[in-house]
Amino acid sequence: MTSIIEFTGPILTAADQERRGLWSVDGLLTFDRPAAAPDLVLDGWVIPGLVDAHCHIGLGPGGDVTGQQAEQQARADRDAGTLLVRDAGAVHDTRWLQRRADLPRIIRAGRHIARTRRYLRGFAVEVEPDGLVEAVRKQARAGDGWVKLVGDWIDRDAGDLAASFPAGTLKDAVAAAHDEGARVTAHCFAEDTLDDMLDAGTDCIEHATGLLPRHLPRFVEQGVPIVPTLINIATFPDIAAQAQAKFPRYAAHMRSLWERRAERVLAAFEAGVTIYAGTDAGSVIQHGRIVDELQALHAAGLPAAAALGAGAWAAREWLGADGITDGASADVLVCAEDPRRNLATLQNLKGIVLRGELVR
């Protein structure tokens, strides 16, 4: 183990706070210079390890993955600078990965909960409305404080996106999760689903492509953040093309959601809605793309520092994880330039330190 690492560049303790003088001693950060000489010196701009707030380590295109595949996914995320993952549903039980000191920290959510035959095959625990509350309680106990609901999906009879569960049942389900000490995050593409989930008291919304002006004050007042997963939303035109012949209404709806993705994210940001960065890696999205998502948020109109905060300081605070503070685990990145001004520098990190060890 590397006992002492000295960081000699600017230390970004927050998006708007910079200081000098930081060391890792036996895996923990300190601003006090140790008596002994460092074993390793790293120079550059230092930020906390990135957070992927919507990631599926332990999930593949067909559902479950092997242990080797789950480890490869975790390594890909780590090597891209993601040192903390909020799992948004996985089939593979990743608790064994949580015990690996060389892999990212994972906050698990158990499995997705979806309506019967209304989600990707092999991904979710599928239930009818009368079984939703029980399923939520079970997944709340199986995870680390989060439950993932599939709020909407294509209804093949209707030929378009439709809510997965009745509004009243959703309220009971969210209340059950809260009773178990868990928070609820919900997959939502469509416009009306957002109303149902906000009425139910959800704690977070994934994707939120159906955001309308009427929703924005409610998101702010209720303190509900969104995780847009813009690099996943980029796949909507392909989804629409595949569905066009059989489900033209659905295809048109998906194209419309895709066309307005950037303006809706920017409108949310400008209205004061909290935004966090997530890739949705693990199904069609490859792992290790958190920087692509930060750059997509910036391209949508968020300032670079705000986009970075959505995947660094702010995200860590939201999840109850330490940033760069005295006594925190030494989970940091070293950049060649100030990443608040140039997100591209995150694509070529000078160093990745996890639990006090230089892993790349």
Topology:
Blueprint: E1 4-7, E2 11-14, E3 17-19, E4 22-25, E5 28-30, E6 40-42, E7 45-48, E8 50-55, H1 67-79, E9 82-87, H2 95-98, E10 105-107, E11 112-115, E12 124-127, H3 132-142, E13 146-150, E14 152-155, E15 160-163, H4 167-179, E16 183-188, H5 191-200, E17 204-207, H6 216-222, E18 226-227, H7 230-233, H8 236-243, H9 248-259, H10 261-271, H11 290-299, H12 304-310, H13 313-318, E19 332-335, E20 351-354, E21 357-358
Helix pairs in contact: 3-4, 4-5, 8-9, 11-12
In angstroms, what is the radius of gyration? Answer: 20 Å
Please, what is the average pLDDT? Answer: 97
The number of helical elements comes to 13
> What fraction strand?
15-25%
Strand order of the largest sheet: 5-4-1-6
Helix content: 25-40%
Ends: how far apart?
14 Å
* Silhouette: globular
Write down how many β-strands occur, each being a DSSP E stretch of 2 or more residues: 21
Q: Please state the structural category.
A: alpha/beta
Low-pLDDT segments, ≥5 res:
none
Largest sheet: 4 strands, mixed
What does this molecule look like?
The chain has helices spanning 67-79, 95-98, 132-142, 167-179, 191-200, 216-222, 230-233, 236-243, 248-259, 261-271, 290-299, 304-310, 313-318; strands spanning 4-7, 11-14, 17-19, 22-25, 28-30, 40-42, 45-48, 50-55, 82-87, 105-107, 112-115, 124-127, 146-150, 152-155, 160-163, 183-188, 204-207, 226-227, 332-335, 351-354, 357-358. The model has no long low-confidence stretch (mean pLDDT 97). The two termini are 14 Å apart. It contains 13 helices and 21 strands. It is α/β, with parallel strands linked by helices. Strands 5-4-1-6 form a four-stranded mixed beta sheet, with no helix packed on it. Helix content is 32%, strand content 23%. Helix 6 (216-222) links the parallel strand 17 (204-207) and strand 18 (226-227).
